[in-house]
Amino acid sequence: MINMKKTLTCSLLFALALPAVALADGAAIYKTKCTPCHGADGSGQTPVGKNLKVRDLRSPEVQKLTDADITKVLTDGKGKMPKSKLEAADIKSVIAYIRTLK
Ligand code: HEC
Fold first, then answer.
1. Which residue of 18, 34, 38, 74 pairs with 84 in a disulfide if CB–CB is 3.0 to 4.6 A?
2. What is the pLDDT of residues 5-38, one digit of tens each?
3. How confident is the model at residue 57 (pLDDT cuts 50, 70, 90)?
């Protein structure tokens, strides 16, 4: 009986916590993990961004990449861009955020 109660409480907590994680703020993730190289506005006009010659995330060339393309860049890294180590839900939020930059 006690065990069942525990399981119930656990699943309840889990159910409550999950949407909060899924809605993790893409803007906040971008700000902490991506800004040093890509700039707050996505232009890449930061000392590191200029050095690495990152493309403007707002440009048509980058915006035309599909969500799957960007997910791959974020999970596997690309050239001098390191893997982001973000969870799938965070990758989704951050991609949604990149789409708002254009
Ligand atoms: C250490 C610097 C660095 C960080 C941090 C970084 N990037 Fe990048 N990013 C790069 C570089 C360099 C490229 C270009 C890779 C290439 O084409 O060789 C790139 C490419 C990209 C591209 C593909 C655009 C293209 O030019 O093909 C996207 C989208 C992107 N980054 C998003 C992000 C997001 C979102 C984050 C944060 C989670 C992030 N990056 C963090 C350096 C960085």
1. 74
2. 766 565 655 555 554 454 458 999 999 999 999 9
3. very high
Domains in the chain, please, with CATH? Answer: 25-101 (1.10.760.10)
Given the CA of residue 79, which atom of ligand 1 is nearest to it? 18
Q: How far lies 49's CA from each of 4, 20, 81, 96, in Å? A: 53, 31, 10, 21
Q: Which of 65, 69, 73 has most ligand 1 atoms within 8 Å of CB, for mutation? A: 73
Percent of the chain at pLDDT exceeding 90 = 75
- Phi, psi dihedrals of residue 72, rounded to the nearest 5°: -65, -45
